[in-house]
C-alpha cells in the first residue's frame, strides 16, 4: 500500500496546492475541509485526473471527537497515516481593545487547538508504524507580531512552540515534526486585504513580489521527503526575505 497523507483545510489556497503536490508525489491524499464540499471534491478530481488517488473528508479540526473519527476512518480505510499537514487556519482580525471573546476563541480553537487535536490523534498510529512526518503551517507573524492579529499571532506562535515540544517527544519514535511559516501568499485569506495594506506589505519584501501557494507546497514536499530525514523541531520561513530569523 502507498503512503497516506492528510492535509487539513485542503479545499482552497495553500492546502489545495499542498494536496495537489502530494498527489503528484504518489501519496493517497485525504483532502480535509470545513464547509467547501464542492471545492474539496474538485481537488480530489484534479488529483485523480493527474493519475493520483484522493478522498475528501469533512471535519472541523477544532472538534476533538470529529478529528478522532476522521483519523479512525483514514486508518481503517487506508491502513496507515504517514504524513499530516496541519494547514487549516482562520483569521478574525481586530485591534486588541476591540477584540471580542468569540474572535479570540474561534481563531485559537481552529488554528492551535485544531493542530493539537490532529497531532494527538495521528501520533498513536504513527508510533505503531514506527515513523511519520508532521508538518504544521505557522505564519511569519508568529515571529514578527502584527497589530490587529493578537489572536492569530498567539495561535501561530503557539504552533511554533508546540512543534518543538512535540518534535522532542516523538523523535525517539522516528517521527519528525516541523513547521512552515509562510510570509505573504496570494490566497482567499490575503485577497480581503486592501490595496493599501498590500502595497505596505510589498515594500517590506526584499524579493519584491508576493509568494504563491506552490512556494509553500514545494517546501512541505521537501520536509516530507527522505531528503529531510534529519530535520525536526524547525520552523522553516518562506517569505521572500520579509523576515530573516
Ligand atoms: P484560505 O482561507 O484560503 O483556506 C483556508 C482553508 O482552511 C480552507 O480549506 C478551509 O476549508 C479550511 N478551514 C477553515 N476552517 C476550518 C476548520 N474549522 N476545520 C477544517 N478546515 C478548516 O487560507 P490560506 O490557504 O491562505 O491559509 C492556509 C494556512 O496558511 C493557514 O493556516 C494560514 O494561517 C496560513 N498562512 C497563510 C498565509 C497567507 O498569506 N495566505 C500567510 C501565513 C500563514 P473550507 O474551504 O471548507 O472553508
TrEMBL record:
<dbReference type="GO" id="GO:0006633">
    <property type="term" value="P:fatty acid biosynthetic process"/>
</dbReference>
<keyword id="KW-0560">Oxidoreductase</keyword>
<comment type="similarity">
    <text>Belongs to the short-chain dehydrogenases/reductases (SDR) family.</text>
</comment>
<dbReference type="InterPro" id="IPR036291">
    <property type="entry name" value="NAD(P)-bd_dom_sf"/>
</dbReference>
<dbReference type="InterPro" id="IPR002347">
    <property type="entry name" value="SDR_fam"/>
</dbReference>
<dbReference type="GO" id="GO:0051287">
    <property type="term" value="F:NAD binding"/>
</dbReference>
<protein>
    <recommendedName>
        <fullName>3-oxoacyl-[acyl-carrier-protein] reductase</fullName>
        <ecNumber>1.1.1.100</ecNumber>
    </recommendedName>
</protein>
<feature type="binding site">
    <location>
        <position position="185"/>
    </location>
    <ligand>
        <name>NADP(+)</name>
    </ligand>
</feature>
<feature type="binding site">
    <location>
        <begin position="9"/>
        <end position="12"/>
    </location>
    <ligand>
        <name>NADP(+)</name>
    </ligand>
</feature>
<keyword id="KW-0275">Fatty acid biosynthesis</keyword>
<dbReference type="InterPro" id="IPR050259">
    <property type="entry name" value="SDR"/>
</dbReference>
<dbReference type="GO" id="GO:0004316">
    <property type="term" value="F:3-oxoacyl-[acyl-carrier-protein] reductase (NADPH) activity"/>
</dbReference>
<keyword id="KW-0276">Fatty acid metabolism</keyword>
<comment type="subunit">
    <text>Homotetramer.</text>
</comment>
<dbReference type="InterPro" id="IPR011284">
    <property type="entry name" value="3oxo_ACP_reduc"/>
</dbReference>
<dbReference type="Pfam" id="PF13561">
    <property type="entry name" value="adh_short_C2"/>
</dbReference>
<keyword id="KW-0521">NADP</keyword>
<comment type="function">
    <text>Catalyzes the NADPH-dependent reduction of beta-ketoacyl-ACP substrates to beta-hydroxyacyl-ACP products, the first reductive step in the elongation cycle of fatty acid biosynthesis.</text>
</comment>
<keyword id="KW-0444">Lipid biosynthesis</keyword>
<comment type="pathway">
    <text>Lipid metabolism; fatty acid biosynthesis.</text>
</comment>
<feature type="binding site">
    <location>
        <begin position="152"/>
        <end position="156"/>
    </location>
    <ligand>
        <name>NADP(+)</name>
    </ligand>
</feature>
<feature type="binding site">
    <location>
        <position position="87"/>
    </location>
    <ligand>
        <name>NADP(+)</name>
    </ligand>
</feature>
<keyword id="KW-0443">Lipid metabolism</keyword>
<feature type="active site" description="Proton acceptor">
    <location>
        <position position="152"/>
    </location>
</feature>
<dbReference type="InterPro" id="IPR057326">
    <property type="entry name" value="KR_dom"/>
</dbReference>
<dbReference type="InterPro" id="IPR020904">
    <property type="entry name" value="Sc_DH/Rdtase_CS"/>
</dbReference>
<feature type="domain" description="Ketoreductase">
    <location>
        <begin position="3"/>
        <end position="183"/>
    </location>
</feature>
Amino acid at each position: 500500500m502507498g503512503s497516506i497523507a492528510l492535509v487539513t483545510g485542503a479545499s482552497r489556497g495553500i492546502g489545495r496546492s499542498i494536496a495537489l503536490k502530494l498527489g503528484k508525489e504518489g501519496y493517497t491524499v485525504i483532502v480535509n475541509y470545513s464547509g467547501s464540499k464542492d471545492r474539496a471534491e474538485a481537488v480530489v478530481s484534479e488529483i485523480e485526473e493527474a493519475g493520483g488517488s484522493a478522498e475528501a473528508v469533512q471535519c472541523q479540526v477544532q472538534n476533538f471527537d470529529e478529528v478522532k473519527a476522521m483519523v479512525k476512518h483514514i486508518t481503517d480505510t487506508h491502513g496507515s497515516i504517514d504524513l499530516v499537514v496541519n494547514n487549516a487556519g482562520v483569521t478574525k482580525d481586530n485591534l486588541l481593545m476591540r477584540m471580542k471573546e468569540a474572535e479570540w476563541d474561534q481563531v485559537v480553537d481552529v488554528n492551535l487547538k485544531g493542530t493539537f487535536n490532529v497531532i494527538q490523534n495521528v501520533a498513536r498510529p504513527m508510533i505503531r508504524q514506527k515513523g511519520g512526518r508532521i508538518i504544521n503551517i505557522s505564519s511569519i507573524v508568529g515571529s514578527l507580531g502584527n497589530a490587529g492579529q493578537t489572536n492569530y499571532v498567539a495561535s501561530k506562535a503557539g504552533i511554533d512552540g508546540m512543534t518543538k515540544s512535540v518534535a522532542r517527544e516523538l523523535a525517539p519514535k522516528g517521527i519528525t515534526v516541523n513547521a512552515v511559516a509562510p510570509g505573504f501568499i496570494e490566497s482567499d485569506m490575503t485577497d480581503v486585504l486592501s490595496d493599501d495594506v498590500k502595497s505596505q506589505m510589498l515594500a517590506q519584501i526584499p524579493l519584491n513580489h508576493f509568494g504563491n501557494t506552490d512556494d509553500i507546497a514545494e517546501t512541505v514536499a521537501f520536509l516530507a521527503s527522505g531528503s529531510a530525514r534529519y530535520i525536526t523541531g524547525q520552523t522553516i520561513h518562506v517569505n521572500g526575505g520579509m523576515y530573516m530569523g
